[in-house]
Amino acid sequence: MQLLAIHGPNLNLLGSREPGLYGTASLEQIDADLRRRAETLAVEIDCFQSNHEGALVDRIQQARGRVDGILVNAGAYTHTSIAIRDALLAVAIPYVELHLSNTHAREAFRHHSYLADRAVGVICGFGAASYGLALEGLVAHLRARP
């Protein structure tokens, strides 16, 4: 099973960016933890981060026919990007939306997601652990399919 983790804008600054809100784990640490957890689940995962919407869309499109599932933390694009939504729907790959913070406990503009209604599930509010929870949920979902 091949998976893809998509990290959106500003996530490259994790560890130093608002640690009271996002925690102290760096993106490199999160990716390393994802790879370790994937190995224990006998799956492979590729991780990709970009601050550019078009690069995220391109990477999602490249996953078509190559990836069984996607973990997506689109960051602020969650609340603005119809293009990322359309890319996810176009490739028809099951995905889990995730966030480090609880977006529903934050500013009103963060309460709406363009991705959530078509996601297998949404995980938010558990800091860096959100990634592992999303990974385990996605793998369980994929393995349960006929």
Main β-sheet description: 5 strands, parallel
As laid out across the biggest beta sheet, the strand order is 2-1-3-4-5
Uncertain parts: none
> What is the alpha-carbon Rg in Å?
14 Å
Total of helices: 5
Which whole number gives the mean pLDDT? 94
Number of E strands = 5
The proportion of strand residues reads 15-25%
Tertiary shape? globular
Topology of helices and strands:
Layout: E1 2-7, H1 19-22, H2 27-40, E2 44-49, H3 53-62, E3 69-73, H4 82-91, E4 95-99, E5 121-124, H5 129-144
Parallel strand pairs: 1-2, 1-3, 3-4, 4-5
Helix pairs in contact: 3-4
Descriptive account of the structure:
This protein is α/β, with parallel strands linked by helices. The chain is 37% helix and 18% strand. The chain contains 5 helices and 5 strands; from the N terminus they run E-H-H-E-H-E-H-E-E-H. It has helices at residues 19-22, 27-40, 53-62, 82-91, 129-144, and strands spanning 2-7, 44-49, 69-73, 95-99, 121-124. It has a 5-stranded parallel beta sheet, with helices on both faces. Helix 3 runs parallel beside helix 4.
What descriptive keywords fit this protein?
146 residues; globular; 5-stranded parallel beta sheet; 5 strands; 37% helix; alpha/beta
In short:
With 146 residues, the protein is an alpha/beta fold.
